[in-house]
Each structure stands twice: as C-alpha cells, then as structure tokens.
Amino acid sequence: MTKPSRTAAYRCAECGATSLRWLGRCPECQAWGTVAEAGAAVRAVRAGPVQRPARPIGELDPDDARARPTGVGELDRVLGGGLVPGSVVLLAGEPGVGKSTLLLDVARRFAAGGQRALIVTGEESPAQVRLRAERTGAVHDLLYLAAENDLGAVLTHLDDVAPGLLVVDSIQTISTDGVDSATGGVPQIRAVAAALIAVAKQRGIATVIVGHVTKDGAIAGPRVLEHLVDVVLHFEGDRHSSLRLIRATKNRYGAADEIGCFEMRENGITGLADPSGLFLSERAAAVAGTCVTVSVEGKRPLVTEVQALVARATSGGTPRRSVTDLDSGRVAMLLAVLARHGGIAFGEHEVYAATVGGLQATEPAADLAVALALASAARDAPLPPTCCAIGEVSLSGDVRRVTGLDRRLAEAARLGFTIALVPGGQTASAPGITTLPVATLVDALARVAGLRDRLGDPRRPVLRTVAGR
C-alpha cells in the first residue's frame, strides 16, 4: 500500500476552485486576492456504498418533481408552476424590498393547503414577524415560526415540525460550530447551504433561502451558492415606487427569463397579472420626447413608454448623457445613428432617456422607440398618441426584425394603440391595429412626419381606451 502524498493546494475563498500554485486572481470566478493555501492530501479513492442503486430512466416517477402551486400566481409564473418538493430556491434582493413579506404570504398559503410550513428567522424576533403576519393576514395554525442562528437548532426544528416548506431568512445569519469562521463568512455560508440542501433533498422539503446582496447588486457569499441551489431569483424594486419585480436567473424546473410583477401595499404584496398600464404615463395630450414600445420578458409582452429630453448644455465641457432603465451603450449608438443617417445632431445638447414605471427596456426591440423619442425631443415634435414603435436599429440605420411581433402587436392593440411602426419585411398583424413597415430609421422618421400631417396636431387632447381598465 502506497503512502498518501501530501502536497500544498490553493483554494479560492469565493468559489471554492483549487489550483496547485498561488494566483493573485481566481481563474474561475475572476475574483482578486481570494486564493489562499490549504493543505490537501491526495489519496486513492476506493469504491464505496451507494445511497440509491442506478435505475433505468424510464422507471423513475416524474411526479416526484411536479411543481406544487404556491397560490401566488406571479411567483408561480417565475418558478415554472410552483415549488417542487426537495427543491432549494435562493431569493435575493435589497433590504426593504419585501422579501420577508412575500415569503410570509407564501408560507401562509402553503399552510392553508394542509401542510406545515416553517419559517426560521435569524434577523427578527418572533414578535416582529407575528405583527407583520397580523397586518398582512398571514396567521395560520399550520404556520410555524422559529428565531434561530445556529444550524443545529434549525435541524432540530425540522425534526420536531416535519414541514413541507422551509423558509430560512436569511442564510447569512445562520452559522455552525463545525466551521471556524465568522457568521456570514464564505466558509459558514458554504457549510450551512450544503447542510440545508442535503436535508431538503433527503426529506423532500421545498426550501426557500433568503440571501443578502452586496452594494453592486450581486448575491453576497460564495458564487458556488448559486450553483448548488435549483432556482435563483432576484427581487427588484425602487424604494420610491410600489412596483416590485421578480426575475429568475437560474431555474432547473422552468424558463429562466420570466418575470413576476407585484405591487407593495399597506397590507402586503399583491401580484399584478396585468401590469402593462403601470408603464404608461397618464396624460390628456401628446408630449414631445415620448414613444411607446412593447418589450417581452419571458413570454409576457409589456407595453412600455420611453421618454427622452434633449436640452442645450448650459455650461462648458462635455454635454451630459443620462440613461435610466435603458442600455446606455445602445442609446449612445442610437444618438450616433440619428446624427449620421437622420441629420439630427446632439453634440452640443444634453440628453436624458428613461422608461416610465421602472421597467428595464434593454432589449434591442426597443431601439426604434428610443430613437423616435430622441428625435421627437430634439425637434419638439410629438408623435401621435396612439402610435407605438417596435424594431431593432443597426449601425447602418436599418430596422431589423424582432421576435414575438404578433404578441407585441396584440398587447399594443389591447391597450388602445391603433398604429405600429414595425420592421419592413416582417409579416405580423393584430386586430384593431395598423402596421406601418419601415426598412430604415429614415423611413420611420418620414412615416412619423406623414402621420403628423395626416392626423393633425398630436398635442390636442386625446382619449386612450384600455381594454379591461
């Protein structure tokens, strides 16, 4: 029998990747200064016992991985139908965005279905959570609450309660004595996450883990945490707005590009099945510098208004360019395309561009609307109020095709729009809306000018009929 040879190894504290020599930058997660020496013994690996024998895939029961609806429709949309027994979901978001309130409602609905739910909080006292539950109507006999910071105590609660749903709020506050590290440190988070995931898989407990985020919006802790869990959700929202969005960046049980829309109210968080009207301004007449487009998030089309403001710079130096909830790189490109092909110069003007309602319209299909809004602001010439624009603009000034045009047009028509500028050569239609194909950005500007001449002054008061509103 050969002796095990011991050699020095280096491990990244951020993602856990190992290397045979020290590196200033981890080659896996690209983090600086996280690689440290850790002794590693290289031993021959022998065959050992297995937990479950291998079986033909056709003999496995797919019902074991069927999603159970949570009762919150917008969350189920993002999860792919609901929570799967034994799955582990990581929900991250900024402080105060409403993570705990949403999960309290989910746990109450789960308990109302006849199964026990357990919430383990390491940040609040039981009395604080009880007050929130009373305010939001989330009190139920099968909903259990525990305030713990020790992993061993959490496992004991699991043995006593035997829940079908476990909510851990948050993983950065749970620690274990088996790891010599501060609470919230990378080794602690990795050890606690591994233990909770193992218990969830063994007992078939649907588990939701709340995670903190750093100041740049990334999930705090090791990146390996996102690899271990089954679903990664980001809860987003502006503190000055009641709108909340849940985005999936990883989902083993469904699409990873869906979003869920919620509204924060005094009595809790309410799902918005039809949020398109939130992203439109309420006004009686058209205003220069605005144009409406239809974005697609997952399978959901959302009518979004783009606003632009062009003003002469009042001081020397480089004119300011400010972009909110749009792709700043694409906005800069559209300014150059408008100057080169549309004859609209912005060199001495400050430019501001944003969306209404806090929805991010970063997909290329919003290019045409952004360009028309910028041109409208520069020329102080409003677009017709019932007109929308959909299309990608290239560097040559061509309007390129987009995906899901039929769904986009149907949503625009449902909200009362009657005219849509669409990419030339792309066939699509919807009842109640007239499509105007444009091959280039110059064609689109000419179409808009023709609409103004035909329809008259768009600043006159108009009424927009929104179906179902």
Q: What count of helical segments does DSSP give? A: 10
How many strands appear in the DSSP assignment?
21
User: Mean pLDDT across all residues, rounded?
Assistant: 86
Rounded radius of gyration (Å): 27 Å
- The oligomeric state of the chains shown is single chain
Q: Which class best fits the helix and strand makeup?
A: alpha/beta
The coarse silhouette is elongated
Range of strand content? 25-35%
* Helicity, as a percent range: 25-40%
Low-confidence stretches: 1-6, 460-469
In whole angstroms, the N-to-C terminal distance is: 79 Å
User: What's the story with the biggest beta sheet?
Assistant: 9 strands, mixed
Biggest sheet strand line-up: 6-5-7-8-4-9-10-11-12
Explain what the structure shows:
The protein has a 9-stranded mixed β-sheet, with helices on both faces. The protein has helices at 73-79, 99-112, 126-136, 151-161, 186-203, 224-228, 328-341, 367-379, 405-414, 441-455, and strands spanning 5-12, 18-19, 35-42, 88-93, 117-121, 143-147, 165-169, 206-211, 231-237, 243-251, 259-265, 268-271, 290-297, 300-312, 321-324, 349-355, 387-389, 392-393, 399-400, 419-423, 434-438. The chain is of the alpha/beta class and 469 residues long.
List the helices and strands and how they pair.
Layout: E1 5-12, E2 18-19, E3 35-42, H1 73-79, E4 88-93, H2 99-112, E5 117-121, H3 126-136, E6 143-147, H4 151-161, E7 165-169, H5 186-203, E8 206-211, H6 224-228, E9 231-237, E10 243-251, E11 259-265, E12 268-271, E13 290-297, E14 300-312, E15 321-324, H7 328-341, E16 349-355, H8 367-379, E17 387-389, E18 392-393, E19 399-400, H9 405-414, E20 419-423, E21 434-438, H10 441-455
Parallel strand pairs: 4-8, 4-9, 5-6, 5-7, 7-8, 15-16, 17-20, 20-21
Antiparallel strand pairs: 1-2, 1-3, 9-10, 10-11, 11-12, 13-14, 14-16, 18-19
Helix pairs in contact: 7-8
